[in-house]
Design goal:
Tetracycline Repressor, domain 2, homodimer, Arc Repressor Mutant, subunit A, mainly alpha, DNA-binding
DNA sequence: GACTAAACTAACTAGTTCGTACATTCTTGT
DNA sequence: ACAAGAATGTACGAACTAGTTAGTTTAGTC
């Protein structure tokens, strides 16, 4: 009997189980009775949350499966049950980080604003958003240390940032049309600039602050860097930058 | 007798030995006879070079002492003899990375140029320099993952980037004086902007390229990003940015 | 209410990894 | 020439770590 169970598990693998779980979102642990000991979705989510924190904090090789298991409401066996192996868990954590951040980004609406104001709002939003999601930034850093080899395996993630480009491209083209922005800039390059400044603010805060003996975490310092970043981007795209910021 | 040696080593620690080696730079292996089997400085340098590569590639927890030892002309025993433990080796590798990059940076001279041209040259140099020293960038990324806790222990590193600030500050103040740059920008903030753009270009190349399906390594793409970066910085500081780039 | 697949647990294993004890060779000052 | 100490090689062990084995419990279904 146990042989059979074992066989079935091996046959479908954890992906099969995961798909089944997604197909049937019954929300057992939350809305149902609290006394219910079995809660697959809850267990899975709990593991993923704990793992995300641990990977973001310690990296792929630095994170410990035993440590993750200990912080979980569940056990180590369950990690392997749902995610196969350490790399599988990491990949899911990475995808999860991207998904969380995308979900937040879609809330921004700039269609009613004039292009410079729209771009200002987008940059400010990106700056704040990156700052709020340090865990995501750290996952991207870690993934870059691994040369993006896990991101490469994920179909989900590529999709995520396409919307970001669409958004900034729309603003930019509106600005070119009404004569406030100069033509000839690739929207991806513009996004690159915004990303670079907003990303660096979080990713390199530790070393930058320590080398130059500055408190970059203070509200005053962050407000200044934020203003600088907006000014930088607006001046980069504007036809008459001295009027822009 | 061996007890005594052991005792002495423990008493002075590896720092004592390291200092002694620095105090007496006899250059044994290179200019001297090649047949000399013992070459402490060479061994030390060789270990450090190998370790730097391994740490930059795999991170602190990802790097393996046995792997480093295997790639060395020497042995694992020597790593512990000279650097104490894994963290000691990492710290020296980190310091070494900063030192190497600083040594390269001091070669830049912009004193004869007009401020906009000087700043352009500085940005271009920084862009190229970061790109050439990917190993350094990766070490800084890794150190940021560790919240800069090792950098904190190092007195040497803080010194390094002071000269970078001095340089950009001098250019900026010359520009303000002659009326080409706007006043009120903190030179550290300006350096922050330059660093962000040049750093991001190397640090996030993997994920950015994979998400947007672009070859950012090509000479054409790099030239474009380099031009954009220069334009961005010049427009940020200039009084009349539309004239600057 | 018996049956079955899914969910879950505890203990274990095979292999890795940092670090060290012990032994030997080389170099230098006297 | 010869101590004394610096530099190096070998082999090993204790602790850790990813992953597994073997078994139990739960909950939906017929």
């Amino acid at each position: 009997m146990y042989e059979l169970v074992s066989l079935v598990n091996r046959q479908y693998g954890f992906e099969g189980i995961a798909m089944k779980l997604q197909r049937k979102p019954q929300e057992p642990g939350k809305t149902g009775k609290v006394t219910r000991p079995q809660d697959p979705e809850g267990t899975r989510r709990n593991i993923l949350e704990v793992a995300s924190k641990e990977f973001a904090l310690n990296g792929l090789s630095g994170a410990r499966i035993d440590e993750i298991a200990a912080r979980t409401r569940s056990s180590k066996r369950m990690i392997y049950y749902y995610f196969g192996d350490k790399e599988g868990l990491y990949l899911h954590a990475l995808e999860n980080a991207y998904r969380l951040v995308r979900d937040g980004e879609t809330k921004l609406d700039t269609d009613g604003l004039a292009p410079p104001e729209a771009l200002r709002k987008l940059v400010e939003f990106t700056f704040d958003h990156h700052r709020r999601h340090e865990e995501f930034i750290r996952m991207v850093m870690i993934e870059n240390i691994h040369h993006g080899q896990y991101l490469e395996r994920s179909d989900i993630i590529r999709e995520v940032n396409k919307t970001a480009i669409d958004h900034i491209a729309r603003i930019y083209h509106r600005g070119v049309s009404d004569g406030t922005f100069r033509a000839g800039i690739d929207p991806v390059d513009l996004h690159w600039q915004v990303s670079a400044l907003c990303f660096f603010n979080v990713s390199n805060r530790a070393t930058f602050a320590k080398i130059f003996d500055r408190d970059l975490d203070s509200e005053a310092a962050q407000a200044r860097l934020r203003n600088n970043t907006v000014a930088t981007i607006l001046r980069f795209v504007s036809l008459r930058p001295d009027m822009a910021s």
